Amino acid sequence: MAHRTELERLLAATLEPTRFKDYGPNGLQVEGRDQIRQLVCGVTASLALIDAAIESGADAILVHHGLFWRGQDGRVTGWMKQRLARLLTNEVNLFAYHLPLDAHPELGNNAQLAKHLGWAAEGRFGEQDLGCIGALPATYESLEALGSHVEQRLGRATIQAAGDGRPLKRVAWCTGGAQGYFEAAIAAGADVFITGEISEPQAHYAAETGVAFIAAGHHATERYGVQALGRQVAEQLGLQYRFIDISNPA
C-alpha cells in the first residue's frame, strides 16, 4: 500500500512531465482516496475502463489519455459528467500522462512498441523529439511483408500506403495520432513510417516521395507504454497491478 502522493511523486520523477509542452494536464487529474492498494492501467479514461477498474477494486487508474484536453468544452455534462461521477463517487484517483509517456526512452509508448515489434531507436526526430528512427533487424523487400509482421504482432489489420517499392531498411515510428510527423520522418531518412492513424495527405506523400506508410491503429500502438510504466511503479511501491484493455477499433 502507498499514499497517493507517493505514487504521484514516483510517476513525476520517472516521466518528468514538466519537460513537455502538452495538450492537457499531466499527473493527478482526479483526486480519490489517500491510500492506494490496487493500481489499474489502461489506454484511455473511458467510462468502460473506469467501470471495469472500479469492479476490480482499483484505488487508482493510470492512463495515457486522460479526461482534460486543451480547447475542450469545460462544462461537466454528458459523458464527462458520467466519468467524473463514477470516479468521485467511488473515490478513485485518476492519473494521466500523455507526451511524457510517449517519449520515455525505456517505458514509453515508442520504446515499448519498438520492443514489441523487434527493433530499437537509434535516433529521434520531430517536434519535442517524439519520433524515433532505427534500422529494421532484417531488410523487408516489400511493404506487405513488414505490414504482415506488424499485423501479427499487434493483432489487427493495418492501412498501408505504398512508396516506390524500395527495400525497407530504416523504419521511423511515433505511436498514436502522429501522421503529421510523416514529413519529418521522410527528412530523417526513413524508408517506412509507422504510426497509429493516417489522414488523406499521407497517401500522396508516400506516392510522391517513395517512403511507405503504415497506420497500425491509435489504440493498438499505445497499449504497451502504460503497461510497462504501471508494472514498474506498482513493483516499486508494493501495489497490486492490473492492465485492462478496452477494445477500440481506432
Structural descriptors:
250 residues; Udp-n-acetylmuramoylalanyl-d-glutamate--2,6- Diaminopimelate Ligase, Chain: A, domain 1; 6-stranded mixed β-sheet; 5-stranded mixed β-sheet; 10 helices
Describe the structure.
By secondary structure, the protein is an alpha/beta fold. It has two domains: 2-97 and 222-243, NIF3 (NGG1p interacting factor 3)-like (Udp-n-acetylmuramoylalanyl-d-glutamate--2,6- Diaminopimelate Ligase, Chain: A, domain 1); 109-221, 3-Layer(aba) Sandwich (Udp-n-acetylmuramoylalanyl-d-glutamate--2,6- Diaminopimelate Ligase, Chain: A, domain 1). The chain has ten helices and 13 strands. The chain has helices spanning 4-15, 47-56, 78-89, 99-103, 109-117, 143-154, 182-187, 200-209, 218-221, 224-237, and strands at 2-3, 27-30, 35-36, 38-44, 60-65, 93-96, 123-125, 131-140, 159-161, 168-173, 192-195, 212-215, 240-243. Strand 10, helix 7 (182-187) and strand 11 form a beta-alpha-beta unit. Helix 2 packs parallel to helix 3 (78-89) and helix 5 crosses helix 10 (224-237). The protein is elongated and about 55 Å long. The relative contact order is 0.18.
Topology of this protein?
Elements: E1 2-3, H1 4-15, E2 27-30, E3 35-36, E4 38-44, H2 47-56, E5 60-65, H3 78-89, E6 93-96, H4 99-103, H5 109-117, E7 123-125, E8 131-140, H6 143-154, E9 159-161, E10 168-173, H7 182-187, E11 192-195, H8 200-209, E12 212-215, H9 218-221, H10 224-237, E13 240-243
Parallel strand pairs: 4-5, 4-13, 5-6, 10-11, 11-12
Antiparallel strand pairs: 1-3, 2-6, 7-8, 8-10, 9-12
Helix pairs in contact: 2-3, 5-10
